[in-house]
């Protein structure tokens, strides 16, 4: 059941992008190119995850992966309440109501693990932390290859100790959430090409490079720096199979700057800079998923109107290189460019 990174025809992985950008069609397209496609189970219920797994199995007979968000302890309720008060004028402007109570949310973690044990998939990766020893051992016994996402050598040590088979090394250039294992941690700023050898110094596990890889030379440089494979996320956002909205796709070419912010979810995430980030980023508390739920009505209203001034537009530093067309062709072309 499990796959080895060395067995991939192309050592290219489609990043799991939660919130709708990753689709079964996108995972299958990456597979057709010879890489490893991924589904993003974050924000989904266990049954919804199972539906996507069933869909990708109909589209490809090659190995694929499923990414899980590891739940965190509850955030500071007082800090979340203060941020709610700060956002009330935004809510009034958008004519939406902010949630006054936010129920505990573990992202259906236990049910997802149970589903993946009952019906194993080839690969599972983790973001925001690691599974417990018994959970990792159970998935290993089921034949699933497990990948821990890390942002520092310290997290890499913890992932190896937890029994991970490979590590996704996420540099600060990556779009979307930084995968820090603790919500309140300040994300590291060591560039990917320096982070890879720093992680290699503490582990012998295969490394997957992630962050700012938008063209062939960047991919080649990551492989030279010690990666066994590369992970593409923002580079795939404008492809035919991506689930990104039309506004998000357009913004990748219109907005010039990215920044790391907690404004939308309480976790640091890199996105296209806009006025909402400028107004609220400095005040957002390190509380996830509470801030994610708090801002959900605002983000939904902005998305409905396609208003780039207030949408969360996750993007890596190479967002300007993202191009349209079939994902299979994009992956093939990038790999060819990396080999030239």
From TrEMBL:
<dbReference type="GO" id="GO:0018580">
    <property type="term" value="F:nitronate monooxygenase activity"/>
</dbReference>
<protein>
    <recommendedName>
        <fullName>Probable nitronate monooxygenase</fullName>
    </recommendedName>
</protein>
<keyword id="KW-0560">Oxidoreductase</keyword>
<comment type="function">
    <text>Nitronate monooxygenase that uses molecular oxygen to catalyze the oxidative denitrification of alkyl nitronates. Acts on propionate 3-nitronate (P3N), the presumed physiological substrate. Probably functions in the detoxification of P3N, a metabolic poison produced by plants and fungi as a defense mechanism.</text>
</comment>
<dbReference type="GO" id="GO:0009636">
    <property type="term" value="P:response to toxic substance"/>
</dbReference>
<dbReference type="InterPro" id="IPR013785">
    <property type="entry name" value="Aldolase_TIM"/>
</dbReference>
<keyword id="KW-0285">Flavoprotein</keyword>
<keyword id="KW-0216">Detoxification</keyword>
<keyword id="KW-0288">FMN</keyword>
<comment type="similarity">
    <text>Belongs to the nitronate monooxygenase family. NMO class I subfamily.</text>
</comment>
<keyword id="KW-0547">Nucleotide-binding</keyword>
<dbReference type="InterPro" id="IPR004136">
    <property type="entry name" value="NMO"/>
</dbReference>
<dbReference type="GO" id="GO:0000166">
    <property type="term" value="F:nucleotide binding"/>
</dbReference>
<keyword id="KW-0503">Monooxygenase</keyword>
<dbReference type="Pfam" id="PF03060">
    <property type="entry name" value="NMO"/>
</dbReference>
């Amino acid at each position: 059941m499990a796959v080895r990174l060395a067995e991939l025809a192309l050592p290219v992985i489609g990043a799991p992008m939660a919130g709708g950008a990753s689709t079964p069609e996108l995972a299958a397209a990456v597979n057709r190119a010879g890489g490893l496609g991924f589904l993003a189970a974050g924000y989904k219920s266990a049954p919804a995850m199972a539906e996507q797994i069933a869909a990708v199995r109909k589209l490809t007979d090659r190995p694929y992966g499923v990414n899980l968000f590891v739940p965190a302890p509850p955030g500071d309720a007082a800090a979340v309440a203060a941020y709610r008060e700060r956002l009330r004028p935004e809510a009034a402007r958008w004519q939406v109501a902010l949630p006054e109570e936010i129920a505990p949310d573990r992202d259906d973690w236990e049910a997802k693990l149970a589903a993946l044990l009952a019906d194993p998939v080839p690969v599972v990766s983790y973001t925001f932390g690691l599974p417990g020893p018994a959970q990792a051992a159970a998935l290993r016994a089921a034949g699933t290859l497990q990948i821990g996402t890390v942002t520092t050598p310290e997290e890499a040590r913890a992932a190896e100790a937890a029994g991970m088979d490979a590590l996704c090394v996420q540099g600060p250039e990556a779009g979307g959430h930084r995968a820090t294992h603790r919500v309140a941690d300040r994300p590291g700023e060591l560039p990917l090409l320096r982070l890879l050898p720093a992680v290699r110094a503490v582990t012998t596990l295969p490394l997957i490079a992630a962050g700012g890889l938008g063209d062939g030379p960047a991919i080649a440089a990551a492989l030279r720096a010690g990666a066994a494979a590369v992970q593409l996320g923002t580079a795939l956002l404008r492809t035919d199979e991506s689930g990104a909205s039309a506004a998000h796709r357009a913004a990748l070419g219109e907005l010039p700057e990215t920044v790391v912010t907690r404004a939308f979810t309480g976790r640091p995430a890199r996105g296209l800079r806009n006025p909402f980030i400028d107004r609220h980023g400095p005040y957002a508390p390190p509380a996830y998923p509470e801030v994610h739920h708090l801002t959900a009505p605002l983000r939904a209203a902005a998305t409905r109107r396609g208003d780039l001034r207030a949408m969360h537009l996750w993007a890596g530093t190479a967002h300007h290189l993202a191009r349209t067309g079939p994902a299979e062709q994009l992956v093939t072309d990038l790999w060819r460019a990396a080999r030239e």
